[in-house]
Each structure stands twice: as structure tokens, then as C-alpha cells.
């Protein structure tokens, strides 16, 4: 009878998944003859490390152990994650049992409270990680030494901070995305003689030039079902980083300054200079108010029809182009691509993004080893190869040449660039009543009902929880 690990691997291969990690020839460490990795194998009963498994020696012999992983990622998107564990399983002998659930956020606290927490969980936001740690302080295990060392070695200091609660590292970084992007058509730019802007003033000058040439530069949409409004919060967050700087941004996120502080008001005014400018929006869709009813998934499509020139949206938006038009090419010389949303000057290069984190609920050696593996370049590279376009890591030692998508490669390079100041999506860090409540709602009012800037910001400030 095949083991669960073997069955999953055979299924992946039968499905045509081609992984370099599946060909390294790793086998679980022998159970006899010295027990464990690292022996010289020359008559002393020791064993040698299997070829391709050198990076896994520090995890030791985990043969016979099982590690349960619980996430919000379900079929078919779960298979690349399962595939990315193969080398860890083969080199250590551990068996990783994956479970994805669409009810993850609701069920994880229930399982913790019932004493049936998974060994590992993928936490989609720092705010949820903080809630889990605060609500169940005896259930979540601080990251072990190996995982902590990997975070220090392979990720920027900001990522450690987002995975920490009360200065203790609980969540190690997993996936990431870049939100500071503007999508455009390289061929349209070339034909019109437009250049990619390097500063915010250049961006506004380009927008004005497009208007002067008879076009409407921007297309936008903030519709997203029950989450309508979040794309507008991303606009404010990206601009807040640029006009106020990262330190004030942090104060805003932590409510050390009120939501209606003059710095936030200035950022909203700057966003309004684009999104509420009738000469600038909403190409292919309508007037300013149409932004509120245009689905974010479709908002950039007028670029492919030659109606729109610029669309601000995250790296993960690339999947939408391919759904809209099967043969669309996302590349620097393709049908669409993206450039970095310019800062106020070329000296400061802030980067807005998001990501997920890995939390452990048991301190068994195999669990600590697996959390460390998920923070390693070996896992990042395996996940890149298993996934294909649409997934990015912020690991500074990943092999960015493995990315099949140019936009993923660009995103990874920006995330790994230590000269850039990374900040996490503000609404994901704020209390839920604000970040996934009043912030979304009031940005919709700002667009749909032309609610005044000061009234919008005051309403959000008034909704901030008192404790």
C-alpha cells in the first residue's frame, strides 16, 4: 500500500506537474546504520546525505512523523502547495498532511478552542495573527530558532515585525504580493511616444498629456461584492506612503494619529486629484461615480480595447487579463504590463504589499523543522516551480529566474530590493471594524456619493474601537 506522501506525489506526476525537486533523487534517511544524517558512511555505521538533500540536514531524521497543515487554499489551488513539500518529505522522512477549507477563518478559532488545532496554519493577515495570539496565548507557539534564523537571514526586518506580536515572532512569512503597480499597454505607450513616469509629478504630467491628446488616462473600479471599497483603500494607502512617509504611515496604522489627521487628509486629496478628476476617469466605464459600481476584476480591461491608458492594481491582477482574453500576453513587450507607482521623488521608493504568514500550534521537532523550511529559499524555489504564474515570495535568496511570469519576477525583485521601504496593507493591520468595515464603506461613499473628504475621514475616525 502506498503512503499518503507517495500517493500525492504520483498524483502530481500523473497530472503533468514537472518539478525539478521531484528529480533530485532524495530518499528518507535510513532507519538503520547510525540513525540520522551526517555520518561519513565509511565503515563506522554512519550514513551519507542523499544527493540534493544537503540543505535539509539541519532538520534531522523525521521518519515516521506527520505534520498537519490547515489553510484557506482549496482545490485546485492547493496542489502547488502539496507539490512544494515533496523534497522536504523525501529528505526528512516526514509526511505533510494538507487540509484546505473555505471556512478557514471561522473554523480555526473553533478548532483551537476545542483542542484540535492543526500543527501549522497559514494566516492571511497580520491582524488575524494578532487576534489568534491574543485570544489563545497558550495555543500558538513562538517560531523556533531555525525558523527565526531563516526570517532574519532571508527576509527584511519589516516582515519579521508583521509576523510578531508583542515583539515575539509567531508568524513566519509565506507568500507575498506587490500593490504599488500601474498597468498599461506597452504598445500603446510606444505608438504615442509616452514614457514610463519616474516621479509622481511625471505621472500627473503623463495624465495631463493623455487628456490633451484626446484620451482619458485612468480606468478604475472598486466593486468587490461584500468587500466593495477595498481597492480604494489601497489607493489611499499607497499614496499615504508617498506623501507622509513610512513613519507617519505606521502611526496611522497603529492609531497613534487620528484617521482624520492632516497627513491623511493630504493623502486623500492627492488620491482625489486622480480618482475624482472627471477629465482623468473613468475610461471605458463612465464618470467618476461609475468607479463605485465597476468590478475591480474588470476595471482594467479597457486597456486591451485601447480606451484606457492607466490602471492601478496589485501584481495578482495579472490573472484577470488572462481570464478576459485567452491569448493576452503579460510582458514588458506584451499586450499589458505594469510599472512601479512612482514616489514623490526618486530618492524614496516605498512599496505597498500584502502576504500570508505561517503559525505553529505545536513545538514538536518536525513542526519546528517544517516552519523553518517554509521560510527557506529551498521552499520558495520549489513553490515557484510548482505554482507557475501568480505567486510571489519576499525571500531575498529565492531564485527569481525561476518565475515564469515577468510581472511575478518584477514583484519578487522589488520585494527583495533592500533599498525599498516595504509596508503592509494598512487595512489588513487595522481593527476589523475599521480595516474591513468603515474604511471600505466610507471610501465607497467618497466615490459614489461625493462625500466630502473631511466627513469621510471623520466618520472612519469615529468608528475606531475604544479598546
Automatic annotation (TrEMBL):
Residues 24-50 are annotated as: Disordered. It comes from the Bacteria. The keyword Transport applies. Residues 1-22 form the signal peptide. SUPFAM superfamilies: Periplasmic binding protein-like II (SSF53850). Keywords: Signal, Transport. Residues 32-46 have a biased composition (Gly residues). Belongs to the bacterial solute-binding protein 1 family. This is ABC transporter substrate-binding protein.
Amino acid at each position: 500500500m502506498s503512503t499518503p506522501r507517495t500517493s500525492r506525489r504520483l498524483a502530481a506526476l500523473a497530472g503533468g506537474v514537472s518539478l525539478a525537486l521531484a528529480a533530485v533523487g532524495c530518499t528518507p534517511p535510513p532507519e538503520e546504520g547510525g540513525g540520522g544524517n551526517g555520518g561519513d558512511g565509511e565503515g563506522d555505521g554512519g550514513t551519507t546525505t542523499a544527493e540534493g538533500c544537503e540543505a535539509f540536514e539541519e532538520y534531522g531524521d523525521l521518519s515516521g512523523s506527520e505534520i498537519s497543515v490547515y489553510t484557506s487554499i482549496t482545490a485546485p489551488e492547493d496542489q502547488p502547495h502539496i507539490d512544494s513539500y515533496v523534497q522536504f518529505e523525501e529528505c526528512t522522512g516526514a509526511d505533510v498532511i494538507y487540509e484546505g477549507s473555505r471556512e478557514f477563518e471561522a473554523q480555526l478559532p473553533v478548532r483551537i478552542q476545542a483542542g484540535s488545532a492543526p500543527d501549522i496554519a497559514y494566516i492571511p493577515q497580520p491582524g488575524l495573527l494578532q487576534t489568534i495570539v491574543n485570544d489563545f496565548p497558550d495555543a500558538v507557539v513562538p517560531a523556533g530558532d531555525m525558523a527565526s534564523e531563516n526570517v532574519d537571514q532571508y527576509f527584511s526586518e519589516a516582515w519579521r515585525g508583521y509576523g510578531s506580536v508583542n515583539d515575539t515572532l509567531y508568524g513566519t512569512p509565506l507568500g507575498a504580493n506587490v500593490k504599488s503597480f500601474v498597468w498599461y499597454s506597452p504598445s500603446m505607450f510606444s505608438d504615442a511616444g509616452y514614457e514610463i513616469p519616474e516621479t509622481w509629478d511625471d505621472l500627473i504630467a503623463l495624465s495631463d498629456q493623455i487628456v490633451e491628446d484626446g484620451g482619458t488616462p485612468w480606468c478604475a473600479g472598486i466593486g468587490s461584492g461584500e468587500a466593495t471599497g477595498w481597492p480604494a483603500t489601497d489607493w489611499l494607502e499607497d499614496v499615504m506612503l508617498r506623501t507622509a512617509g513610512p513613519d507617519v504611515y505606521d502611526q496611522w496604522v497603529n492609531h497613534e494619529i487620528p484617521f482624520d489627521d492632516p497627513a491623511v487628509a493630504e493623502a486623500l486629496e492627492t488620491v482625489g486629484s486622480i480618482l475624482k478628476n472627471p477629465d482623468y476617469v473613468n475610461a471605458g466605464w463612465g464618470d467618476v461615480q461609475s468607479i463605485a459600481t465597476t468590478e475591480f476584476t474588470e476595471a482594467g480591461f479597457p486597456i486591451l480595447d485601447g480606451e484606457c491608458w492607466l490602471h492601478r492594481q496589485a501584481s495578482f491582477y495579472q490573472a484577470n487579463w488572462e481570464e478576459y482574453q485567452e491569448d493576452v500576453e503579460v510582458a514588458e513587450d506584451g499586450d499589458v504590463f505594469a510599472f512601479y507607482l512612482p514616489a514623490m521623488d526618486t530618492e524614496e521608493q516605498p512599496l505597498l504589499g500584502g502576504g500570508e504568514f505561517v503559525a505553529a500550534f505545536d513545538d514538536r521537532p518536525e513542526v519546528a523543522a517544517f516552519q523553518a523550511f517554509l521560510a527557506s529559499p529551498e521552499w520558495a524555489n520549489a513553490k515557484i516551480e510548482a505554482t507557475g504564474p501568480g505567486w510571489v515570495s519576499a525571500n531575498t535568496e529565492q531564485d527569481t529566474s525561476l518565475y515564469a511570469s515577468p510581472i511575478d519576477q518584477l514583484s519578487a525583485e522589488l520585494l527583495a530590493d533592500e533599498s525599498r521601504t516595504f509596508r503592509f496593507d494598512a487595512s489588513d493591520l487595522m481593527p476589523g471594524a475599521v480595516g474591513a468595515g468603515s474604511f471600505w464603506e466610507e471610501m465607497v461613499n467618497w466615490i459614489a456619493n461625493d462625500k466630502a473628504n473631511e466627513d469621510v475621514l471623520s466618520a472612519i475616525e469615529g468608528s475606531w474601537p475604544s479598546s
